[in-house]
Amino acid sequence: MTEIDSTSVPGAGGELSMPGGPPARLSVRSLSVERAGRKVLHGLNFEIRPGEVVGLLGRNGAGKTTLFQVLCGLLAPGSGEFSLDGKPIAPGHREFRSRCGVVFQEPALDPRLTARQNLALAAGLYGVSRRDAPSRIEDLLERVGLTDRGDEPVSRLSGGMRRRVELVRALIHEPEILVLDEPTTGLDEAAFRRIWADLLELRERRGLTLLLTTHRADEAEHCDRIGVLDGGRLVAFDTPERLTAMVRGDLLVIETDQTTLLIETLRERFAVEAHTSDGRVVLHRERAHELIPRIVELLPEGALRSISMRHTGLGEVFLELTGHELDEDGKQEATPPVGESEPADEARP
Description:
Layout: E1 26-35, E2 38-48, E3 53-57, H1 64-71, E4 79-84, E5 87-88, H2 94-98, E6 100-103, H3 115-125, H4 133-143, H5 159-169, E7 177-181, H6 189-206, E8 209-214, H7 217-220, E9 225-230, E10 233-238, H8 240-245, E11 250-256, H9 259-270, E12 275-277, E13 280-285, H10 292-298, E14 304-310, H11 314-322
Parallel strand pairs: 3-8, 3-9, 6-7, 7-8
Antiparallel strand pairs: 1-2, 1-4, 4-5, 9-10, 11-13, 11-14, 12-13
C-alpha cells in the first residue's frame, strides 16, 4: 500500500480555487464526526467548484453515508466549517437546503403514486407554485424520457426508471447543487449508462454542481475530481487522470497460502516489492505479464490458488492508496420489493 499524506496529494486539502477567481460553490473545512465514542470522519477538507462533478469514492463503511448525512443537514458534525459561494453556512440551514437537491440511496418515492403524482408532491413540499409546477414536471419527465410513463404507478416501473424519477424529483425546485448517495447502486449496465447521460446533460444545460458518493470505480470515472475516502479520512483528491498516473504499470493479484515466501522471494530474486491486501499478494510492475510464469515456478506445487493481472484504473488506484479492494457488489441488479417483479426498462408491464 502506498503511504499517502493527504496534505501532500494534489487537491487533498481542497486548495484548488484559482487565485482571484470565483469562490468554491461548496467548501468543507476540518469536518469531523464522532458516533458512539468512535470518530468516523477525521478532519475532512475539500471544495467543489461551480458546475463541477465531484465523487467521493470509498468502500462501505468508509464514512461516505455519514458525510452525506452531514451535508444534507440530517446529522450535526462534531466540528467543521462550511461555506456556500464563499459565505459561511450550516449544512442544515434553510438557505443551504433550498439550494440543494438530494437523491438518497434508499427509495424516497411512494410506489402507489404515479411518477407525476410523486413529482407534484415534491413540488408542494419544496414550495413550487401551482402555476409553475405542471410545466416543470412535464419538462423534467421529458428530459429523462418518461413522459409516456408518467401516469403509471411507480411500482410498475423498472429500477432504472424509478431512479430517473428520483433524480428529477430532486430537481423540481431548480437547485444549484445536486447531492447523490450511491446513485446507481443495484442498476444494470443499461440503466447505469442512462442515469449518467441524464446527469451529465443536466450539468451541461444548467451548470448544475454534482456531489456524489460511490463505491464503483466505473462511476468515479465520470467525475471531474475524485476524493478517495478510507476509514473516515480523505487520502487523495484529484482528477481521475492524475490519480491513475500515481500508479504505474499493471497490477498482479496472487492468492496463495505462501504469502511471506512469495513476497521475500520476489524482493530477493527480482527486486520487486509486493504487499498483502485482504490476504492476497499485490504488486505493480511494467510488463507484469512477464512475471506470471516466474511466480508459478517460485511457489511449491499446490500453493498457488489464483493469479490475475489488471491494467491500472481507479479500482487499482484505490487498492494502492488504501490497501483494500473496492466493494464488488456495485454492478449487481437491485432486488425488487417482495411481491413485485422487475420489468425491463423498455418493456411495458
